[in-house]
Amino acid sequence: MLRPLAEALYVQEVPFRIGGMELGGRMTVIRLPEGGLWIHSPVRMDAETRAAVEALGPVRYLVAPNLEHHLNLPAWAAAFPEARVVALPGLRKKQPNLRIDVELGAAPEAGYAEVIAQQHLRGMPRMEEFVFLHRPSRTLLVTDVAFHIRHSPSWLTRTYLKLSGTYGKLAPTMLLKSLVKDRQALRTSLEAVWSWDFERVVVCHGEVLESGGKAALRSGFAWL
């Protein structure tokens, strides 16, 4: 269930398989200064998950960080109608029945801007990912722009990640690289991320990297 990483920062890991590959999934929950919860990339909801989240505080924000991590949002939005659903504008086309209250943009919502910064990683129109910085814990949250799978029992997963040059590293996969259509736009976006103060990197797929996160991620994007 929910596992604390730092003060006001929690994660929940779940199994996740796609295309025959075992990638794992992760939801991140941040408790805001006023006590409400900001939830990044919600995982499938069940009774235990809902109870664990509600025990931490009232849900204030449900965040879809890119155009792919949204399948579980409708259930969460229905379960927590008072929460504000935060997503990219392009998600309205993919999820026309999803209630979207806030469109991600250059500036974070006032309700979480005190502790969370956000940056649009441009140049990948089919992905349109936002990354987030939890300032108090110096933690960067990434979704699909980089994996950190150091071990896998799946031969297919290991093979794909080794071919990508990603196995055992914090780095983008072959698929992510193929989605980059404007390298300069992505480089410019990442320059803003490199200016942030972070040590830990929480990925949606793979292991949390507790230290050296900025250097590892910069190395992962050296190809750019």
UniProtKB/TrEMBL annotation:
Coiled coil region boundaries: none
InterPro entries for the chain: DUF4336, RibonucZ/Hydroxyglut_hydro
Source taxon at top rank: Bacteria
Pfam families on file: DUF4336
Protein name per UniProt: Methanol oxidation protein
Organism whose genome encodes this protein: Hyalangium minutum
